[in-house]
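Record 1 of the preview.
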Amino acid sequence: MQRSRRFASMAVVASLAVAGLSACRSEPAVAAYIGDSRITEKRVQQVWDDARAALGDAAPMPITRTDIVNVLVSRDLIDRVAQRHNVQVPADLSYDQFAALVRLPATTEYVRLYAQYNALQYTVEQSITSTTALTEDDLKDVFQRLTANNALQPGTTFDAFKGTVPADVTKDLQAAVALRNEVHEVADPLKVTVNPRYQPIELGVYGIQNQQTKAIYQIVAAQVGGDASVPVSDVS
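->
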């Protein structure tokens, strides 16, 4: 079980799973609600068009509209968590390394939002000094995510797994879980809702790189809600 470099571990598909839109928060032109704020479909389209123009018409788009909603929601929420810790986006943040991860030019708005989210997420996590022991449920969630991504030896049981987590990994997991819990504390009162067409999404806080596919998957992530049963008119 090898952890990727830190900027990558904060990366790809950093986002938040949220509840379905209620009757009073179900405008088809709105992609997501965060408290009184709205992320409109027009805003999503602006980020999409910016990426499309930077790539050119012939190149395949490496991101989806769901990825854009993910990063817009995630950036808003991590900003709110960062305010708790009095931290800001580093002034010397390099966008090139993040651009390489998402295969978009460093000048695009998507890369900037994505990089800023990840930088804030890392800075906040580094500032967390008080953590608690991992619960059985915390470890089970990690175990299930690792198993789903074939990161453990076949036949590994949960009891065998939890007894072999190294001390340094446990420390990292505790910080990630503490951050995940803070995201929940911030998000829950805001009643964050995302149009079901963009669900499920989640705000990842601890990623692992698959050594074979090089894909990043999350083993600790903030999830809020998940009821996508309320229909919302589609928007082309």
